[in-house]
């Protein structure tokens, strides 16, 4: 019995907790991608850079707050700085929409041109971020580090396996739940949210019923930028901030959005967790886990790892490709905000 | 000004810029830039075939360039016989198991009726195949990677002249493109983009982590060259005499001579590919491609096999990128999988094609030259600008140090701005596509 409990704790510690955290971060990122896709109808390649930009501003405000002695008790100071980062991300995204995307919208250009334009923005924002904060790794987490430590957990339960939950992991999940709840309340019940869904569903009909398209577009950009900043800050707190990593995050985020059904917010969340858990479960070495469960003398000698950790990113893409082939609309049917 | 004179002026300006770099910085720097301009032009031609002729949005260039690069390494390096002896047999067996598994799946697909039973059988075959492959693969990899790990730890290559690899690299890339195209070409534009971007990342992940094949991030250095080595030149009598007639220092002259040799080789490749591209674009085949790009349904209704043509151009374009990738690794003299990055190897090439003029081969070449030149020269220019900006500041100021240190990142901002400006104000690029009408 104890072996079974130990194996469950082991799995929780190395698969479930990291998977939940990473899944939440991907879900927030994918929600932004999916909203842009639903309203503006293109895949925004600059989304990873939006995350990096918002996070960078948050980090700088955090440093400022730390230097003047503002702190958030046991919670990271970055949470206090986050609104500033989000505001800056909203500002830069709205600016890019005004000077770049609006022109193509008015011309009713093909989606591919929006996509290429977003590659241009990606370059520019990538340069800005590296120019201001540099390409190096930055750590900015402070406050309490752990919610539960492995040693305390072992003492509490008397099991030989410990469970560690970092503060940033707990925060990520809690904040994601709050943000997602607020977003869905907004989409379902507010006038603007309904206008967005109508616009996403049928642009012409929405225009006929008097919805102001430019306003819908602006609100969408703003929400996507806020979500991107939250996702970026949570990821940065949990791991660390490095501009190139944020560029690479674009890939699993796209995968999450598409696997879930692009344009579908629930799908984006589902996709985030599907991608995160498949990355973690496929690259986890099950040797110790099986040792607890296998009968005496049957323990495995090898690591029992399906794929080496180096292929983490590849996993999300294999899933993406399979989904695109088997069910191109994603797990939940996508294409419009529902 | 007619377009022809304009084009002439563009290339003249480009030549002038390279000469200016030769005079101001040094001829060696100018030639290095020119060599990479030539390779960039080849890559841009490959992208132009896919995007310019056929409208395929492929952002997996990095993967094809890396496949070309690995071909250069595999063709030229001598085989490591000890590693083959230690792990070669098992590796062959695991390869055989891959083939067996694939054949079994094909057989099941052919012989069994559709339904749940078939799906379960396939799943069982995949799982059994996985364990069979791992059974041979794991010990093979262990044996190979532990063979003189510090020096080799991989299988080595074929020990053939590296110039062969330019063809082999193209063939490898074509093979990969065929497989990828089969899977992903049915997708809509932005899905195709994301799928190809992802697949190129997978290619890099494999090259970085399969140490038995590529030594991974430990890199393979010292690839044999197709041109003479500087030290040999400096020691040979005819070269010392030659440099004396020019009144040049033999050491500097040898470096320039080596670069010139590469220039000649690259120009031949670029010339051949450009000639063939021009012939293809102005043939009935080229017109068909553009018809498919502009009026897909109409072309399909006329009996053109859109899917097959897309696959064809995807394979050809990727092969050209693969050739360029092999050329690049040859020039570097080393294979470094850790240095492939999508901004430099995929998106920058796209900027070249769009700035040069999609659909126009000469435009792609021009774009390759201009953008590569700016990409390299952005650093000294950015540094210069920053030094002027900060000249009034105190020497010890942290801001000044930061601004000068960050000047290198100006190139990203510059590339993005160029792309956005060209798209907005000159969407057809510097040299627009030539469309001939017969009235």
**Main sheet of chain B: which strands, in order across?**
1-2
Main sheet: strands, sense, barrel of chain A: 2 strands, antiparallel
Let me know the number of strands of chain A: 2
Evaluate the radius of gyration of chain A: 21 Å
User: Share of helix among residues of chain A?
Assistant: over 70%
Number of helices of chain B: 18
Alpha-carbon distance between the termini of chain A?
45 Å
Question: What would a concise description of this structure say?
Answer:
The complex is a heterodimer of chains A (338) and B (439). Chain A is mainly α.
Question: What do these coordinates show?
Answer:
The complex is a heterodimer of chains A (338) and B (439). Chain A has 338 residues and is an all-alpha fold. Chain A has one domain (2-240). Chain A has helices at 2-40, 47-68, 78-107, 111-133, 150-157, 167-189, 191-201, 203-208, 213-238, 243-260, 265-283, 287-293, 312-326; strands spanning 146-148, 165-166. Chain A has a two-stranded antiparallel ribbon. In chain A, α1 crosses α10 (243-260). Chain B has 439 residues and is mainly α. Chain B has helices at 3-24, 27-53, 61-76, 81-111, 116-145, 164-184, 189-209, 211-214, 230-235, 237-246, 250-281, 284-294, 296-301, 306-332, 342-356, 361-389, 398-406, 410-425; strands at residues 220-221, 334-335. Chain B has a two-stranded antiparallel ribbon with strand order 1-2. The two termini of chain B are 24 Å apart. The mean pLDDT of chain B is 89. Chain A binds chain B through residues 42-43, 100, 103, 111-113, 115-117, 119-128, 130-132, 134-135, 244, 247-248, 251, 254-255, 258, 302, 308, 310-311, 313-314, 316-318, 320-321, 324-325, 328, and chain B through 57, 138, 183-184, 187, 189-191, 193-195, 197-199, 201-202, 205-206, 208-209, 341-343, 347, 350-351, 354, 405-406, 409-417, 419-420, 423-424.
């Amino acid at each position: 019995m104890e072996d079974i409990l130990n194996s469950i704790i082991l799995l929780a510690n190395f698969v479930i907790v990291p998977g939940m955290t990473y899944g939440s971060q991907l879900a927030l990122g994918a929600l932004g991608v999916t909203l842009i896709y639903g309203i503006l109808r293109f895949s925004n390649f600059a989304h990873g850079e939006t995350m990096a930009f918002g996070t960078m501003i948050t980090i700088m405000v955090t440093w400022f707050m730390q230097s003047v002695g503002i702190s958030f008790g046991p919670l990271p100071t970055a949470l206090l700085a986050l609104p500033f980062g989000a505001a800056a991300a909203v500002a830069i995204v709205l600016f890019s929409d005004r000077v770049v995307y609006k022109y193509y919208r008015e011309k009713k250009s093909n989606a591919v041109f929006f996509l290429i334009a977003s590659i241009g923005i990606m370059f520019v924002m990538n340069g800005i971020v590296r120019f201001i904060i540099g390409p190096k790794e930055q750590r900015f987490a402070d406050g309490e580090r752990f919610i539960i430590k492995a040693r305390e957990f072992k003492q509490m339960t008397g099991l030989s396996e410990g469970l560690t939950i970092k503060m940033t992991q707990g925060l990520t999940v809690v904040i994601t739940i709050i943000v997602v709840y607020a977003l869905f309340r907004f989409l379902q019940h507010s006038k603007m949210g309904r206008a967005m869904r109508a616009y996403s569903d049928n642009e012409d009909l929405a225009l006929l019923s008097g919805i102001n398209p430019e306003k819908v577009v602006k609100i969408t950009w703003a929400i996507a930028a806020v979500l991107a900043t939250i996702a970026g800050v949570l990821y940065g707190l949990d791991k660390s901030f490095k501009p190139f990593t944020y560029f690479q995050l674009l890939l699993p985020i796209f995968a999450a959005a598409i696997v879930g059904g692009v344009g579908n917010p629930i799908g984006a969340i589902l996709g985030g967790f599907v991608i995160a858990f498949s990355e973690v479960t496929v690259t986890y070495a099950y040797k110790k886990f099986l040792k607890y469960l296998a009968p005496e003398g049957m323990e495995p000698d090898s690591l029992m790892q399906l794929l080496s950790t180096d292929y983490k990113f590849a996993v999300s893409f294999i899933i993406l490709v399979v989904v695109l082939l088997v069910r191109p609309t994603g797990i939940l049917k996508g294409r419009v905000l529902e | 000004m007619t377009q022809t004179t304009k084009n002439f002026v563009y290339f003249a300006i480009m030549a002038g810029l390279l000469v200016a770099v030769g005079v101001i910085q040094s001829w060696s720097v100018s030639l290095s830039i020119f060599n990479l301009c030539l390779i960039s032009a080849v890559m841009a031609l490959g992208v132009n075939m896919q995007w310019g002729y056929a409208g395929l949005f492929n952002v997996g260039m990095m993967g094809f360039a890396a496949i070309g690069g690995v071909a250069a390494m595999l063709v030229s390096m001598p085989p490591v016989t000890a590693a083959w002896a230690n792990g070669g047999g098992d590796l062959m067996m695991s390869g055989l198991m891959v083939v067996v598994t694939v054949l079994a799946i094909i057989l099941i697909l052919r012989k069994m009726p559709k339904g749940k039973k078939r799906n379960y059988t396939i799943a069982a075959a995949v799982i059994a195949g996985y364990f069979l492959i791992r059974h041979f693969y794991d010990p093979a990899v262990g044996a190979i990677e532990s063979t003189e790990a510090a020096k080799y730890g991989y299988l080595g290559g074929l020990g053939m002249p590296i110039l062969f690899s330019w063809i082999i690299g193209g063939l490898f890339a074509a093979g990969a493109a065929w497989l990828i195209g089969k899977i992903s070409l049915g997708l809509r534009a932005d899905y195709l983009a994301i799928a190809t971007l992802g697949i190129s990342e997978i290619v890099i992940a494999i090259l970085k982590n399969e140490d038995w094949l590529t030594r991974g991030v430990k890199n393979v250095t010292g690839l044999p060259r197709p041109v003479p080595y500087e030290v040999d030149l400096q020691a040979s009598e005819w070269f010392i005499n030659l440099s004396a007639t020019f009144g040049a220092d033999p050491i500097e002259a040898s470096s320039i001579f080596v670069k010139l040799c590469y220039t000649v080789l690259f120009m031949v490749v670029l010339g051949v590919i450009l000639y063939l591209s021009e012939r293809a674009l102005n043939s009935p085949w080229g017109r068909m491609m553009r018809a498919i790009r502009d009026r897909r349904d109409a072309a399909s209704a006329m009996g053109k096999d859109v899917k097959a043509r897309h696959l064809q151009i995807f394979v050809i374009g990727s092969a050209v990128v693969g050739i360029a990738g092999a050329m690049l690794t040859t020039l570097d003299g080393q294979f470094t999988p850790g240095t492939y990055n999508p901004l430099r190897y995929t998106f920058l090439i796209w900027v070249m094609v769009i700035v040069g003029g999609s659909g126009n081969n000469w435009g792609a070449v021009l774009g390759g030259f201009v953008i590569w030149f700016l990409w390299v020269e952005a650093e000294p220019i950015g540094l210069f600008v920053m030094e002027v900006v900060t000249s009034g500041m105190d020497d010890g100021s942290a801001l000044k140090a930061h601004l000068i240190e960050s000047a290198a990142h100006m190139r990203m901002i510059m590339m993005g701005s160029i792309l956005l400006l060209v798209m907005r104000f000159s969407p057809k690029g510097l040299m627009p596509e030539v469309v001939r009408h017969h009235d």
